[in-house]
Each structure stands twice: as C-alpha cells, then as structure tokens.
Amino acid sequence: MMELKEFTEQEVEKIRSNEEQMDREGAIPDELLAIIYDKQLFKLFVPERFGGRRTSLPESVRIFEEASSINGSFGWLVTIGSGGGFFSGNMKKEVLDDVFLPRNAVIAGSGAPTGTAVKCEGGYRVTGQWKYCSGAEFATTFTANAMIEDGAGEEPAMRSFAFTEKQVEILRDWNAFGLKATGSHSIKVENVFVPEERTFSIFESNGVVDDPVFSYPFMPFAQASFTGVLLGLGLRVMEEAEHYLDMLAEESAKKPVLRKVLDEQGDRLEALRSTFYNTIDGNWSLHLEGESGHEQYDEVSEVCAGTAQGVREIVFALYPYLGMYASDRGTPFNRVFRDLLTASQHALIAPY
C-alpha cells in the first residue's frame, strides 16, 4: 500500500471493513461520509471563508490517488464531490454561502447539456434529465447544463444551473459492475424555476473568489483529477495481486512467474506515476507564474490520457496470472478490477 499522508491506518481499516457491504448494497455508509466531512474532503477547492481547505491542484490529485488506493467508490466520491467546489469560482456571490457554507455541502451533477431552459421573469424554467450524477443520494446541491431556448431561431446557448435538493428527482438507475457505492444515478427536473442568481457559466469567473485553481482550465483540471483516481486504483490492483502471490504455496511453479510479472508491471506503474506528477507539478508552477498556455495545458491532457491507458494495460497484464481468484466477485482484487474498469470509462480519460 502507498505511504499514507491524508488518512490514518485506523481510517483505512474502517473504510476497507465496509467494502463488501458497499459493493453489495450500493451505498456509502454514514460513518465513511463522516470521515469525508471531518477532513473537509468535499471542500478541497473551496475557499476558507466557506469552511474549505483551498488546496492546490497537485496536492488534491495526490489526495484523490490516496483515497482511491483505499477504496474505489470512496476515492471516486471524494474526487467528484470536491470537484464541485471548483464552481465556487463561477457561481454568483449571492448563492455562495447557501451552496458551500454548510459542513455537509457537496454538489452532484452532470456536464452533459441534456436539459432545456426557457427564459422567464427572474430566471429560467428548466426541464431535463442527466445521467451519472455521482453522490446523488447525499448531495445538497445539484448542478447541470441546459440549452437555452429563446424562440428566436438563434443557436441555443448553454448555461449551468444549480438546483436545490427538493427540485430534483433521483431516478436511482446506477447499475454498473464497478464503483457500485457511488450512487451515480440519473436526476430529473420538470419545468422547475431557477432564479437568475442560481445560474452560471463554468467559463466565467464570478470575480469573488481569487485563487489560482479557479483560473486553471476546467478540462485538464478534471482530467488530472480522474487520472489520480486511476493511479490509486492501479496501486490497489498491485497490492491485491501481491496478496494473491503470498497465498500461493512456496513450491508453486506459478509463484516465480507471477513475481516477475508483478515486478515488471510495478515498475511500469511507478514510471507512469512519475511522468504524470512531474507534468502536473511543472504545469502548476507555470500556471502560478502566468506562463502556461494552450500548449502546456494540452500536454497535461495528453499525459492524462496516456497514463489512463497505461493503467488499463497494467491491470489486463496481471489478470491472466491470478486464475479464478481474479474472476471471483467476492475477492478484493475483483472488486478493484471492476472499479478501475468502470472509472476508466469516463469520457475525459477515454483513449480517443
């Protein structure tokens, strides 16, 4: 297991003791949410005035990796939940206290523009349905994109909307074979009124929150975050493969073969991690100095895609050597295998 920095050994034990239940019931227990709230992990990017930690991108990505190396669903929820804090730099100042100040404040939502909005007095009437809203079961605010219909025949413009809990219907349709406890359900709204102050654009600063993370482009920000998750899951894959190796009899002919494969893939994973973090750290330094342009941000995106693909290849290189143990849905290896494959399907780190 990787060196712990954010979590204690006792917290790791508590999280992992709930893994089977989480995989079976498809929900994160309250005692694990309490760990997240206590550590303000949903507020990594939120300014201190709202109870946030105001963490840099490189530090946050390392937290995502560590959390995901403990448990996939836990790490994914920390990553997605904290990512909503990015919007504290976009939302209008009138709603910042309401959305971000509560201790349990967390945003769930979707970036897909699968809703429509019609302008009305004081705001918009919004109708739509959005898939894969991780953390929907405990979210305090929901954000989603919709296309504005003005009836003038012009090209519709996209805008983001912040719904309250009461405005949203959770469809509870998350049925993936991995990340089962993330509650990544669809949400639906039907002709709900959203006041102007609860609308925003992720491409526009609110001028209220001044922090380097909010001027960092959203796309490489999100790609780096998800890549951190995959690296954490890759570390857990290696950990569980090592456990399987330890279970083999000393005289097993399979043992030296698996040892060789583990060493090769472990070296490959560390090389991927080194390249990834060197790129993220270097780009962040350039960003702070105001010297990072499109070319440098594009490099981050390329490294994220390459790292994600490399982690996929590592897990598939290991899988054949673990026999039926790897196929047993009740084993920790199978669980992290399913989590990794599910996480790697996210469009922002897809190999195309």
Automatic annotation (TrEMBL):
One GO biological process from the UniProt record?
L-leucine catabolic process
The molecule here is called: Acyl-CoA dehydrogenase
Species: Rossellomorea vietnamensis
Q: What would you give as a GO molecular function for this chain, any one? A: 3-methylbutanoyl-CoA dehydrogenase activity
Lineage, top ranks: Bacteria, Bacillati, Bacillota, Bacilli, Bacillales
Q: Per UniProt, which keywords does this protein have?
A: Oxidoreductase
Q: Tell me, what's a Pfam family for it? A: Acyl-CoA_dh_N
Q: Where is the Acyl-CoA dehydrogenase C-terminal domain?
A: 250-349
Where do the Acyl-CoA dehydrogenase/oxidase N-terminal domain residues begin and end?
Answer: 5-83
For this protein, the record's InterPro entries field holds:
Acyl-CoA_DH_C, Acyl-CoA_Oxase/DH_mid-dom_sf, AcylCoA_DH/ox_N, AcylCoA_DH/ox_N_sf, AcylCoA_DH/oxidase_NM_dom_sf
